[in-house]
Specification:
By secondary structure, this protein is α/β, with parallel strands linked by helices. The chain has five helices and 24 strands. The strands form seven sheets. The protein has a five-stranded mixed β-sheet. A four-stranded antiparallel β-sheet has the order 1-2-3-4. Strands 15-16-19-22 form a four-stranded mixed β-sheet, with no helix packed on it. β1 and β2 form a beta hairpin. The longest helix is centred in the N-terminal third of the chain and has 31 residues.
């Protein structure tokens, strides 16, 4: 009898264990990571994503047809779709991209409605901070200080709220190739097993010396007096000019009486530039071009002469003298460059770019020949 009870008790325990195992399996099947309920949730979410994607793409297809005949801009077109509740909203992400939202999903397009990033769920966005842009030796790159060809190293910290950063492409620290003006990074963060992607563009434009199509364009862009360096990219050639630029905001009258900044006055002669820093010496060539820029009218009175600086020791003047005036020039006096040729290596000076893409320029070869005959 006792043996039967023992067997019955063992059978009960085994039955309970089996039931517990079955319950565990059932719960896991229903609610586990790969369970039925989890799969159902994924299916529902996937259907929402597909529906949102189809609705946004339908709108974009409509724009491709409508833009041929409409006078609307793309943003005006999107405004009309928001009003009709065909999309939830849109927002500009940067100068080149726009995010279009529908049912908690987003597709990113360019300014003409072309998809540049496929649909993803709206959620926490990976962000970056502590951006560092240095030279290869680790020193900080100052604004507009580097020539094209200089390589930079980019690094930053990336994070996402309540999650982890899964990947950054290209990897950081990233070394540029010396020509890149913008580097785009794709950053993927994961929160609760869902990936969220953002693209971050880091501009290097301000680190390079700005390049212009002509000397005229370079001078027109200058806002402050001082020593500047500009690069001219013309006819597949990069020419660097060091300038001592003297700027006047407002009308300038040279009357032979009034002193003006950036020039010396002696016997009705205004001499612009610095005879110490802008000209050559026995052992060094002239380095700077003197630029006089007037944002207004410019008048040279009768019996007044305008010229540029020259070496006291017989090594010529600056590497050039340019007068740039935004309004009218009235010359009742004289502009003289007698004996102002510079002891310096000749350069092609691309003064102005014509509408037919040709250039008005001073060739380097003439300057080189003159230098050779006079100084060497």
């Amino acid at each position: 009898m006792k043996q039967q009870k023992a067997i019955t008790l063992i059978a009960l325990v085994i039955t309970i264990i089996i039931l517990l195992i079955l319950v565990g399996i059932s719960i896991s099947t229903l609610m586990g990571e790969r369970g039925i309920l989890r799969k159902a949730d994924i299916t529902i979410e996937k259907n929402k994503e597909t529906t949102a994607e189809e609705e946004i793409k339908l709108i974009l297809n409509e724009w491709r047809i409508e833009k041929v005949e409409t006078t609307k801009t793309f943003l005006e077109f999107l405004d009309s779709k928001v009003e009709k509740n065909q999309i939830d909203k849109y927002e500009r992400i940067d100068e080149e991209s726009i995010g279009i939202y529908r049912n908690n999903y987003i597709i990113i397009v360019d300014n003409d409605g072309k998809i540049i990033k496929n649909i993803q769920k709206v959620g926490p966005v990976p962000t970056i901070e502590n951006i560092k842009i240095t030279l290869e030796d680790g020193t900080e790159a100052e604004e507009y200080s580097q020539k094209i060809g200089t390589k930079f190293i980019i690094s930053f910290d990336a994070m996402i709220k309540d999650g982890i950063i899964k990947s950054i492409y290209p990897q950081i620290p990233y070394t540029t190739n010396g020509e890149e003006k913008i580097v785009e990074f794709e950053i993927i963060g994961t929160v609760n097993d869902i990936d969220y992607t953002t693209n971050v563009k880091i501009s290097l434009e301000s680190k390079y010396i700005k390049q212009y199509e002509s000397l005229e364009k370079a001078i027109s862009d200058q806002k402050e007096s001082g020593y500047k360096q500009v690069q001219i990219l013309a006819k597949n050639e990069v020419v660097t000019h060091d300038m001592n630029i003297i700027i006047y905001n407002g009308d300038l009258v040279l009357d032979g009486i009034k002193e003006v900044n950036g020039a010396s006055l002696n016997n009705n002669v205004y001499t612009f530039g610095n005879a110490t820093t802008d000209v050559g010496t026995k052992t060094t060539d002239a380095t700077n071009m003197v630029v006089l820029k007037i944002n207004g009218n410019f008048v040279i009175n009768e019996a007044v002469t305008l010229t540029s600086c020259i070496s006291d020791n017989g090594y010529g003047g600056s590497k050039g003298f340019v007068i740039y005036c935004t309004n009218e020039i009235t010359n009742n006096g004289k502009i003289s460059m007698s004996d102002r040729g510079a002891k310096a290596k000749g350069q092609n000076v691309y003064l102005y770019k014509n509408l037919d893409e040709t250039y008005e320029y001073v060739p380097a070869i003439g300057a080189n020949r003159w230098r050779k005959s006079k100084w060497q």
